[in-house]
């Protein structure tokens, strides 16, 4: 009776420790099993809870887990962290992420812990980590499919590059607009092969190496697991095609460089720092892709005596002291006329600003909407006076005082 109770107690303890061992109704006899040879646990076998390893709470969603892995990889990757524990720590977080990023493994781990993984995906097992996640942790993600995103489209049309040209305008052309010519050198579609790069009449087949995809897969085995990457097909150099003969005119590029003059319409009201876009005048695209654009950066020459502030312009006018006192009519140059009559009121003080409404520069692209022309009056004081002039000025002074 005592032996039966002891056996039941032992089985109960075993069942508590492992819920998958079910006690039977009767026990005929107990025997002592052979004691296994235990090896010292490795650092990975003694790893913390996988969620704790990544620093996230249990039940975290995929986005939180992925963000935590990127942050941890950026901190512990051996290439950026030379501390002794960095390699081991990075291995731990990589293996934790390999499990928690897989929906099936994550579900089994949540239900049964490492026992539910069966040694295949937990600590100590084979690890498969998405190489894009490691890449994104250092360079950012979401930009077109990681390593393979750009390659998958490289055998299709590619838009040409945009070009820049600089153009200096005279002051009045910048204000009122006009036509200008810009000389550029750009790539144009080859007329012989019509941009295909293939010699007319030559046969084009799908590349046998990459099956027309333009990329080949490479599998690299590392201590962290197997990594699969895409590289440019060495046979077709990414085109996905096998060509019998390339165009001799453009050396198979589909484009050739030519110099030309481009006529540009300058709108009114432009200023230094403005840029104009001429669509389709950049480099021609590869594989019959659309051409890029030409961007023309403007600078404006100074016009003697004129200062411009947006749509307003300013000039200076020098008058004699007696004209400032008595008033006068003076001719000045404006943007529209070489000689425009301006009335200087009597008693004008030095630095007075006279406003000519609507005589300034037009607003950008709006010829009828113009700013103002301001005239700053400078009063010229005589430096030397003869006796009679001095006497007259003194009489005037005394009279004005009284």
What is the helical fraction, as a range of percent?
Answer: 25-40%
Q: Spatial order of the strands in the main sheet?
A: 10-11-17-14
**Total number of β-strand segments?**
17
Order of helices and strands: HHHHHHHEHEEEEEEEEEEHEEEEEEH
The geometry reads as: elongated
Mean pLDDT: 79
Poorly predicted residue ranges: 1-47, 119-128, 139-154
Determine the number of helices (DSSP H or I, runs of at least 4 residues): 10
Distance between the termini: 142 Å
Structural class: alpha+beta
Strand content: 25-35%
Largest sheet: 4 strands, mixed
Which radius of gyration do the C-alpha atoms yield? 42 Å
Report on the structure:
With 402 residues, this protein is of the alpha+beta class. It has helices spanning 2-17, 50-54, 62-76, 86-100, 103-112, 131-139, 146-149, 171-176, 321-326, 387-401; strands at 163-169, 178-189, 204-206, 215-222, 225-232, 241-243, 255-266, 275-278, 294-300, 307-309, 312-320, 328-332, 340-344, 353-356, 362-363, 366-370, 373-380. The strands form 7 sheets. Strands 10-11-17-14 form a 4-stranded mixed sheet. Strands 1-9-8 form a 3-stranded mixed sheet. Mean pLDDT is 79; it is low at 1-47, 119-128 and 139-154.
């Amino acid at each position: 009776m005592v032996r039966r109770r002891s056996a039941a107690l032992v089985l109960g303890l075993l069942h508590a420790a492992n819920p998958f061992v079910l006690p039977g109704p009767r026990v005929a006899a107990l025997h002592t099993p052979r004691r296994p040879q235990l090896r010292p646990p490795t650092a990975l076998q003694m790893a913390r809870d996988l969620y704790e390893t990544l620093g996230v709470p249990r039940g975290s969603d995929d986005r939180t887990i992925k963000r935590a892995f990127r942050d941890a990889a950026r901190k512990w990757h051996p290439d950026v962290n030379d501390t002794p524990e960095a390699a081991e720590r990075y291995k731990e977080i990589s293996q934790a992420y390999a499990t928690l990023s897989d929906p099936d493994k994550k579900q089994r781990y949540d239900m049964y812990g490492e026992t539910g993984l069966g040694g295949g995906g937990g600590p100590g097992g084979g690890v498969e980590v998405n190489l894009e996640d490691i890449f994104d942790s250092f360079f950012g993600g979401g930009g077109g499919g990681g390593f393979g995103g750009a390659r998958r489209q490289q055998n299709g049309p590619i838009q040409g590059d945009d070009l820049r040209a600089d153009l200096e305008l005279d002051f009045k052309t910048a204000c009122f607009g006009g036509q200008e010519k810009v000389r550029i050198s750009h790539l144009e579609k080859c007329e012989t092969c019509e941009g295909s790069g293939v010699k007319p009449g030559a046969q084009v087949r799908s590349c046998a190496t990459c099956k027309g995809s333009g990329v080949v897969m490479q599998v690299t085995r590392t201590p962290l697991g197997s990594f699969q990457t895409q590289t440019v097909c060495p046979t077709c150099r990414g085109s996905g095609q096998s060509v019998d003969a390339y165009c001799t005119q453009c050396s198979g590029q589909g484009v050739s460089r030519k110099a030309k003059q481009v006529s540009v319409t300058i709108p009114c009201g432009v200023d230094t720092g403005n840029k104009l876009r001429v669509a389709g005048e950049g480099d021609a695209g590869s594989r019959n892709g659309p051409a890029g654009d030409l961007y023309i950066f403007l600078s404006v020459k100074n016009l003697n005596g004129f200062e411009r502030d947006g749509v307003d312009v300013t000039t200076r006018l020098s008058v004699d002291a007696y004209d400032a006192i008595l008033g006068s009519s003076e001719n000045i140059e404006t943007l529209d006329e070489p000689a425009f009559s301006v009335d200087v009121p009597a008693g004008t003080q030095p630095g007075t600003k006279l406003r000519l409404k609507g005589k300034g520069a037009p607003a950008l692209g709006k010829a009828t909407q113009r700013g103002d022309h301001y005239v700053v009056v400078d009063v010229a004081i005589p430096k030397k006076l003869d006796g009679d002039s001095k006497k007259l000025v003194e009489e005037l002074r005394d009279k004005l005082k009284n």
